[in-house]
Amino acid sequence: MTDTASTPAAARPVIRKLTFADLRFVLAAGLADFRKAPQFGLFFSAVYVLGGFGMLSLGAGHVSWTLATSLGFPLIAPFAAAGLYEVSRRIETGQPLHWGSVLGIVWQERTRQLPWLGAIIVIYFLFWTFLAHMIFALFMGLTTMTNVSQSWDVFLTPNGLTMIAVELAVGGVLAFLLFALTVISLPLVLDREVDFVTAMMISLDVVRQNIVVMLCWASLIAVLTLVALLPWFLGLIVVLPLLGHATWHLYRRALQ
After folding, report:
1. Residue 152 dihedral angles phi and psi, to the nearest 5°
2. What is the Cα–Cα distance from 68 to 76, expressed in whole angstroms?
3. Closest to 199 measured CA to CA, from 126, 125, 254, 128
């Protein structure tokens, strides 16, 4: 492999059958990559941690918070992931690791397929934001509201509990669909010359053919991310690089 961000794909890649042993392997490989080049993982995860503190300063529930969440993080996420994938790719191929090469790849991706995937993610998050507000209005629109920072009683009513259940169910389905569209397509467009639509279709096929294993992987990502968010986002400093590097290795295990 040459010292570039991508290599030509002569044909549609073959999808491999994944097992739970593959998940253990990619987690171990992701941790090994993080240990070999921690400075890159810490740099990219710091973007998220600082962004989280920035949004807290805006105030949850404020319009600017919603816009920052819907437009900021989803747009940045693919490029941060590309940096972690590039680090893992260079470790895998024995290429030198330095800031110019890694950040240079992230910069080069702005003219390739990655921005299209970023746009899809942004649109997806905006759709979910509006859908979540619609569900809230359907169940709670006629309810007398109180300051939720002082009392959560309104959410413990039958309507409130039903709304929470619907929000979780719909959000879970939409989150898994977004996961299925991007888990393989993001590293694929970095590694090979393939358009973003084809990459998303391949990603969906990988998830469909390995549904149990990929459901487990998606659940693991959700749990680790939730736990990492609890201590003031600080857990993301370790969890995000680990998952980013591991996703590269999962992509390499899933396709040949």
Report:
1. -100, 15
2. 11
3. 254
Grade residue 255 by pLDDT with cuts at 50, 70 and 90: very high
Supply the pTM of this predicted model.
0.82
Task: Give 59-117 pLDDT, tens digit per residue.
Answer: 554 444 454 554 455 556 777 888 899 999 999 999 999 898 888 887 887 778 888 88
Instruction: Determine phi and psi for 192, rounding to 5 degrees.
Output: -135, 160
From CA 247, how far away is CA 81, in angstroms rounded?
9
Give the whole-angstrom CA distance, residue 125 versus residue 114.
17
Of 224, 182, 226, 171, residue with least CA distance to 204 = 182
Minimal CA–CA distance to 79: which of 117, 53, 42?
A: 117
Helices 211-229 & 236-254 angle (0-180, nearest 10): 170
CB 123 within 8 A of CB 20: no
Q: What distance in Å separates the CA atoms of residue 176 and residue 183, rounded to the nearest whole number?
A: 10
AA letter at 206 = V
* Chain centroid, CA 202 distance in Å: 17
* CA-based end-to-end distance of the chain: 15
As a 3-state breakdown, the chain gives helix, strand, coil percent values, each rounded to 5, of: 75, 0, 20
Of 135, 178, 185, 177, the residue nearest 160 (C-alpha)? 135
Q: Give the pair of three-digit tokens for residue 44.
A: 């990219």
Per the CB < 8 A criterion, the answer to whether 199 and 118 are in contact is no
Amino acid letter, 200: M
Query: Cα separations (Å) of 14 from 23, 26, 44, 93?
Result: 19, 19, 31, 21
